């Protein structure tokens, strides 16, 4: 008589359950064996059919390519298999990106219009499914009779690649009732920096300027590390929420570049933020044009006004040289080789101290020496003298007192984007794709009278048509 374990369950009900489980296992084992036997029979039958077919024809049998998981082909594969398979219809699955039709724009309830940009209309909307508030940007198709606009393609491609906390997030792309109704669904942020500066009575505090500028530089550093130029940085393209976070937006003019940089269009960047080499007709340029725009944004944060408000290209050059001083062979070697620089007639001036020279202290009275040095280097006439994003982020300006204010302590502001259409002062728009750089008109730009030789004087220098 075998002794029963003292841990054994003496409950009759539990014993019945264990017996039922054993019977189910036996049934599964028998079903599995029966299924394997049927597969072997099918394999033998298929082998006999192939042998009969080979006997009927003298030609050697052709190899059969497995195109599906039907029982016949599965059986063919398993003839020489030593280990039987339990389920021949299951194949190995790998995780892949899911592709499917885009959602319809009717899944979003448009709440109010925010603004119209160069490449699209932006609205505030609510996702009906989740209730989340998003920004809905409808791409402009007016200037693309041949198909989808390249500006929209570049914006989509760049936003899909640029996943960074300081770059606006592209959630998805939705479509309307017509083929040219394409919408970008992005995160909604309550403010843009331009509207905030227009409505504020006083500029941001120095600690707040450092917080904002460091975030913009961090996002731009990521773009440049991915070989992407934004080419339209300005305060209206910097979005901000009520948690002190700022994000770069509007990538309609963004462009991948290489080393050496390819030949690119010179009509990029909104006029007030356009670098002098672009104004003078440079056909090759790099990330230095973004750094010049950062300098203009830095100055705007300090003064609460756009730093260089030119009426046209020549007036813009005049205001730049009035701030930085005219270029010299020491401060900007080789600038004479630029197409539009050949008409410049500059006065004989002594070489300024420093390279790049410091901007006038009277223009920025509350900026520290380190801050003035950073701003002067960003607004250097010579593109090669401008710092990179990494050099800016490690600059002593961000380590001196007052330190950057934590985002959690940043002030909040009423959101016009959440209530009504923004009312901004008239500012220049970004250049539209396909436009050619205009011929510079030098007549009556600086308020002087036209001279007999077709030139205009002003801001300490003279411009002449070539």
UniProtKB/TrEMBL annotation:
- What EC identifiers does the entry list? 2.7.11.22
Bias category Basic and acidic residues: which stretches?
21-38, 397-408, 426-439
GO terms of molecular function: ATP binding; cyclin-dependent protein serine/threonine kinase activity
Q: What GO biological process, any one, is recorded here?
A: regulation of mitotic cell cycle
**Pfam name, any one:** Pkinase
**Domain Protein kinase positions:** 108-398
- Keyword Plastid appears in the UniProt entry: no
- InterPro entries, per the entry: CDK (IPR050108), Kinase-like_dom_sf (IPR011009), Prot_kinase_dom (IPR000719), Ser/Thr_kinase_AS (IPR008271)
Q: Which Gene3D superfamilies match?
A: Phosphorylase Kinase, domain 1, Transferase(Phosphotransferase) domain 1
> Which residue stretches belong to region Disordered?
1-89, 386-466
Q: What EC class does the entry list?
A: transferase
Q: Can you name this protein?
A: cyclin-dependent kinase
- Organism of derivation: Aspergillus oryzae (strain ATCC 42149 / RIB 40) (Yellow koji mold)
């Amino acid at each position: 008589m075998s002794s029963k374990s003292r841990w054994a369950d003496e409950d009759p009900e539990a014993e019945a359950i264990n017996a039922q489980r054993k019977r189910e296992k036996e049934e599964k084992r028998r079903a599995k064996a029966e299924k394997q036997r049927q597969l072997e029979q099918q394999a033998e039958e298929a082998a006999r059919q192939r042998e009969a077919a080979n006997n009927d024809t003298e030609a050697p049998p052709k190899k059969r390519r497995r195109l599906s998981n039907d029982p016949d082909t599965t059986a063919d594969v398993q003839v020489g298999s030593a280990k039987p398979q339990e389920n021949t219809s299951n194949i190995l699955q790998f995780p892949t990106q899911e592709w499917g039709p885009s959602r319809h724009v009717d899944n979003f309830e448009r709440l109010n219009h925010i603004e119209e940009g160069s490449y699209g209309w932006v609205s505030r909307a609510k996702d009906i499914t989740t209730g989340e508030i998003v920004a809905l940007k409808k791409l402009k198709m007016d200037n693309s009779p041949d198909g989808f606009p390249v500006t929209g393609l570049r914006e989509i491609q760049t936003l899909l690649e640029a996943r960074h906390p300081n770059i606006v997030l592209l959630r998805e792309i939705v479509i309307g009732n017509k083929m040219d109704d394409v919408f970008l669904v992005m995160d909604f942020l309550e403010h843009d920096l331009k509207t905030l500066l227009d409505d504020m009575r006083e500029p941001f505090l120095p600690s707040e300027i450092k917080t904002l500028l460091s975030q913009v530089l961090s996002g731009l550093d990521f773009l440049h590390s991915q070989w992407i130029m934004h080419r339209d940085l300005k305060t209206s393209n910097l979005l901000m929420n009520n948690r002190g976070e700022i994000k770069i937006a509007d990538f309609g003019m963004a462009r991948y570049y290489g080393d050496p940089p390819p030949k690119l269009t010179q009509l990029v960047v909104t006029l007030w933020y356009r670098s002098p080499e672009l104004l003078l007709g440079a056909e090759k340029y790099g990330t230095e044009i973004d750094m010049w725009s950062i300098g203009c944004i830095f100055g705007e944060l300090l003064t609460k006004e756009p730093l260089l408000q030119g009426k046209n290209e020549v007036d813009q050059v005049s205001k730049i040289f009035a701030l930085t001083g005219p270029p010299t062979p020491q401060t900007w070697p080789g600038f004479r080789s630029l197409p539009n620089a050949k008409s410049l007639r500059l006065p004989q001036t002594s070489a300024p101290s420093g390279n790049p020279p410091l901007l006038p202290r009277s223009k920025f009275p509350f900026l520290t020496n380190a801050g003035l040095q950073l701003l002067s280097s960003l607004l250097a006439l010579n593109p090669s003298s401008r710092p990179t994003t990494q050099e800016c982020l490690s600059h002593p300006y961000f380590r001196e007192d007052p330190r950057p204010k934590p985002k959690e302590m940043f002030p909040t502001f009423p959101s016009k984007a959440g209530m009504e259409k923004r009312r901004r002062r008239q500012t220049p728009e970004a250049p539209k794709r396909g436009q050619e750089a205009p011929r510079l008109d030098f007549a009556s730009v600086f308020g002087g009278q036209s001279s007999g030789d077709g030139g205009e004087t002003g801001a300490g220098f003279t411009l002449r048509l070539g």
